[in-house]
Amino acid sequence: MYVVGYADEVNGAGTAEAAAYVPTRHEVVELVNYWYRRILHNSWFFFVRGGTGSSEWRVKAFADRRFDRAEAAIGKEAVDVAIKEAHEEFRTKVVKDDRLWDIFEHGTEEQRNAAVEETYRKISEPDAADVLSRRIKKNSQAL
User: Fold this and answer.
1) Taking burial as the number of CB atoms within 10 A of a residue's CB, which of 27, 48, 56, 81 is the most buried?
2) What is the pLDDT of residues 51-82, one digit of tens each?
3) What is the pTM of this model?
């Protein structure tokens, strides 16, 4: 059964803690990296496609809470470093377009809207949207 906004890893059985398992510092850093990449993936997808769903917003809220817990465990500086590394890795390995990335991060509303229109033009060919979605997903999973 499909439920709107449902994401097992953030509001389902997948959120149950594994109390007997204590992660190492390295593993906590990897979790921060993972959740930040998920946020970036969702934000980038929203940027290039002009829309998103409620599951993505749930992932963001959940990830923010995980960052808070990670800071309590390994410190703010370690979390900030992990986020910075994930950010750069996503930019260079998934996006690969410095101009669009700059608009994504710093662009005006007008520039962002123009970038979405440009992306739609690029994906207006049959199956191009599916190709773009698969490419974004593949590149994100490769991280």
Assistant:
1) 48
2) 777 788 889 999 999 999 999 999 999 999 99
3) 0.77
